[in-house]
Amino acid sequence: MAGTFSTVMARPVPVVAGLMALGAVLAFLEMGTPAALAFMVAGLVMMYAYGRNARPQ
After folding, report:
1. What single DSSP character describes residue 43?
2. Rounded CA gap, 32 and 25, in Å?
3. What is the pLDDT of residue 44?
4. What is the pLDDT along the chain (57 residues), one digit of tens a residue?
5. Would you list the DSSP string of 2-38?
6. 8, 15 in Cβ contact below 8 A?
7. Predicted structure pTM score
8. DSSP 57
9. Are 13 and 46 in contact (CB under 8 A)?
10. 10-19 contacts: CB < 8 A, separation 24 or more?
C-alpha cells in the first residue's frame, strides 16, 4: 500500500486527470457537490504531489 501511494505521488497526472474527468461528468449530470469534491481532491493531490517533489535550490 505504501508503494502504491509513493508511485501515485511520483506521477500524479493520471490520477488528477481521472478526478477531473469524474468531476466533469458529475457536473454534466448536475451533481454539484460531488463534482466540486472531485475537483477539490484533484487540486489537493496535485498540490501535495508537486510540493513533496519540489527540491530546494
Report:
1. H
2. 10
3. 93
4. 667 777 777 888 898 999 999 999 999 999 999 999 999 999 999 888 888 766 655
5. HHHHHHHHHS-HHHHHHHHHHHHHHHHTT-HHHHHHH
6. yes
7. 0.79
8. -
9. no
10. 10/49, 10/53, 12/45, 12/46, 12/49, 12/50, 15/42, 15/45, 16/42, 16/45, 16/46, 19/45
Residue 8's pLDDT is 75
From residue 42, alpha-carbon distances to 30, 37, 56, 57 in Å are: 19, 8, 24, 27
Distance between CA 22 and CA 40 in Å, rounded? Answer: 12
Whose cell is 481521472? That residue is 18
Q: CA 21 → CA 3, 30, 45, distances in Å?
A: 25, 14, 15
